[in-house]
C-alpha cells in the first residue's frame, strides 16, 4: 500500500509499515512539516497515497476541508503498538486495493 504518514505519526509506525513492504512517504520528508491539511490531501491525491493520520480534520471535524475524492484515510490510534498498526494495514491491503473515499480506523478490529 502507498501511504502518506502525517507528521504526528510515530516513526515506529513508519518503520513497521516499511518493514511490511509498504511504500510510506512521510510529512517532513516528502511534504514540508507544518503543511496544512488541504496540502496533504492534494499531495495524497497527486501521488495516489492513503493518508495515515490521527487528525480528526480528515474525518470531517473541519467542515471547511474538502475531503472529497481522496485515495483513502486510515485514522490511526497513535497510542497503539506499531506492530498492531502494521498488522491492521497488512490485513486491509489483503482485502482491498482501493480505499478511495473510505475512512478506516486502525488498528480497529483488523489485528
Keywords:
111 residues; alpha/beta; 3 helices; 5 strands
Secondary-structure blueprint of this entry?
Layout: E1 2-5, H1 11-19, E2 23-26, H2 37-47, E3 50-53, E4 73-76, H3 82-95, E5 103-106
Helix pairs in contact: 1-3
Polypeptide structure, described:
The chain is an alpha/beta fold. Helices cover 31% and strands 18% of the residues. It has 3 helices and 5 strands; from the N terminus they run E-H-E-H-E-E-H-E. Helix 1 (11-19) crosses helix 3 (82-95). It starts with a strand and ends in a 5-residue tail after the last strand.
**Apparent shape:** globular
Give the low-confidence spans.
Answer: none
Overall average pLDDT: 88
Q: How many structural units, i.e. domains?
A: 1
Compute the separation of the termini in Å: 17 Å
Q: Largest beta sheet, briefly?
A: 5 strands, parallel
What are the secondary-structure elements, in order, as H or E?
Answer: EHEHEEHE
Total beta strands: 5
Round the Cα radius of gyration to an integer and report it. 13 Å
As laid out across the biggest beta sheet, the strand order is 2-1-3-4-5
Number of helices: 3
Strand content: 15-25%
> What share of the residues lie within helices?
25-40%
Structural class: alpha/beta
Amino acid at each position: 500500500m502507498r501511504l502518506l504518514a502525517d507528521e504526528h505519526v510515530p516513526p515506529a509506525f513508519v518503520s513497521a509499515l516499511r518493514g511490511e513492504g509498504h511504500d510510506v512517504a512521510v510529512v517532513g520528508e516528502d511534504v514540508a512539516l507544518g503543511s496544512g491539511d488541504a496540502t496533504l490531501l492534494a499531495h495524497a491525491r497527486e501521488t495516489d497515497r492513503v493518508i495515515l493520520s490521527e487528525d480528526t480534520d480528515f474525518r470531517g471535524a473541519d467542515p471547511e476541508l474538502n475531503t472529497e475524492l481522496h485515495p483513502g484515510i486510515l485514522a490511526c490510534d497513535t497510542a497503539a503498538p506499531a506492530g498492531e498498526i502494521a498488522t491492521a494495514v497488512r490485513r486491509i491491503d489483503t482485502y482491498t486495493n482501493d480505499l478511495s473515499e473510505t475512512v478506516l480506523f486502525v488498528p480497529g478490529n483488523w489485528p
